[in-house]
Amino acid sequence: MNxxxxxxxxxRKKQWNYERKVLRSLSITDMRKDVHQHFMTTIxxxxxxxxxxxDFAVDIGIDAFLLGSEYGRFGYxxxxxxxxxxxxxxxxxxxxxxxxxxxxxxxHGSEEDEERYRQLSESFVHRWxxxxxxxxxxxxxMKLH
Length: 145
Prior knowledge:
Blueprint: H1 7-23, H2 28-40, H3 47-70, H4 72-76, H5 81-87, H6 89-107, H7 111-141
Helix pairs in contact: 2-3, 3-6, 3-7, 6-7
Pfam families: DUF2521
Protein name: DUF2521 domain-containing protein
């Protein structure tokens, strides 16, 4: 008898394999350094908040990197990074809102702080999306997809 698998299951496995391969090129130590440089130097927080928010920011950065690498396929076929980014702007906005909301909720900041958290989160997510996009384009050029 043949094993019947669904298309969505096969697509999900292919996506997981691609993400695993892409994550091999990502340095977590570089991302942690970037989180410290980006967030921790401008926002004062205690040790527990620092640890929690650092891990959260790394998770958001990884998600943005994977999203960018996924859309690197469009860059390989001739789209600019901005055109490809416009395709996934909804997901990027969700990452930005999650990150800014988490900083706001954890640090109990004012409205001015909330805007600053949003700006920091926006530049962080866009930076890691761009890095992922460039990695995705590179992988497609090298036929590693």
